[in-house]
Structure formats: structure tokens, C-alpha cells
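[RESIDUES AND BACKBONE]
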Amino acid sequence: MKIALIGNGAIAKLVAQFCGARPTKYNVTAALVLPTDVTSVGAYPVVQTLAELLATKPDLVVECAGHSAVKAYGAAILNAGVNLVVVSTGSLADQTLWDEISHAAENSTAQLKLPAGALPGVDSLAAGKLAGIEHVELKSSKPPKAWAGTPAEKTHDLANITVPTVIFSGTAREAALAFPKNANVAATAALAGIGFEKTKVSLIADPSVTQNVHRLEADGAFGSLRLEIYANPSPDNPKTSHMAALSIMRLLEHEAAAIVI
């Protein structure tokens, strides 16, 4: 399978290492990067335009570069008939972008694929939706330093937080748009479940945790779901979970596997 990447950071590096260790299954053809990026994090070339990336004839493009990359390239990739994996699911909280991306997927031969990331029980949540879900709530806790560079810096003294502190409470749409580098899990929960407006989200700065902790609650006709994950941060980026890259790897395994769970 020929895979192209958008991005040249921590997640791209881990995905490239995964693919490189399985050369009979995967071939990373290139990565679309910023003009300032001249060195690839993997054993493949970097390119500066989408046309150059698509010229490598990938079967699948994996976005791991943030909201702006989804907005700039998402619909065009799908319209070109190439399957697209979007890691930055929070970008899809933008209704205009969602309409554009979903329309492209529905009117092309390609699929939009959304990995679970660090969200626990995404398959159970999506299955439960078929019977009807009344309530979904996500509580995400991270060390205070992981909220640096977010709106929380303006409302809280992150360096001096000594007890678990709610830095945001609202809908999944509000969380995903206000915290684009920290709340992809909230967006994934909304997309798998009952939507951006009905999914409740709390973001918490907790000095007692060293991992990214996500607690998911859901209630509906299927019963009740209570799950939590203590996810290790990415080795190179404390704002995201290692599970973000691992979920992409699992998705790629599904693409190449004869038996899928």
C-alpha cells in the first residue's frame, strides 16, 4: 500500500517508523510539509504542493499536520479519489469545513477515515448510537503544562495550579474549535456519538497526572458506558497522546489485513 503523509512532526515520524518496519505492506511515498521544512522525519522525500504529493500516486493520505491542513487539502484529496485519514478531527467542528469534506467524500470514490485517537470505546459509542444515545460526556485531564499555548493561558495561571482545575466546560464543538491542538478526542466522541452540540466536554488541568486522562460516559437504549484511559503523551509532543499515532497504525493494519477486528 502506498501512503502519503501531510505533516513532518511527531505523529508523522512514528507512523513513518511503523511503515518502514513493514516494507512488504507499506510504502511511504512522500510528505507534504511547510516551506520551512527541508528535512524529512522519514526515509522519503518532502514536497511543497498537493500536486506533487498526489503525483506519487498514493492509495491513502494520512493528515497529521493540524486543522489548517485539513482545511487546505482535505476536500481536494477526496475529490481526486484518494482515501484520506484525518487525525485532526477537531477541524471538522467547523460546520462549513465539515459540509465541504463530507460532500467531497460522498461524491467521490474515496473514503474519509477517522481514527479513534485516544478516545476509549469509540466502537461501542458508535454501535450504541444505532439504538439511540441520550447522553455523552467527556472529561479530559492533562498536566497544566500541556495546556500551554491554549486559551487557558489567558484565564488561568497554569504554572501555579495545585489542584485539578476545570479550564473549559461546554460543547464538543466549542472545545474542538477553542483548543485545536488538545481536543481532537472531544470531536471524535461527537462524530462517533450524538453530535457536536449534544456532547458535553470538560477540559481539566490536573497537576497530579503525568498522562492524558480521558473519561467517557454515555447512556442510552444500549445501557450505560463508563470508560477511562490513562494515555502516555507522545514522546515528542506532550499536547497529544501516543495513542494518536498508534490509532493510525491500527487503521493502516486494517487496510492491509485479511481479518479485521
In short: The longest strand covers residues 133-142. The chain has nine helices and 13 strands. The chain has a mean pLDDT of 95. Residues 2-114 form a domain with the Rossmann fold fold (CATH 3.40.50.720).
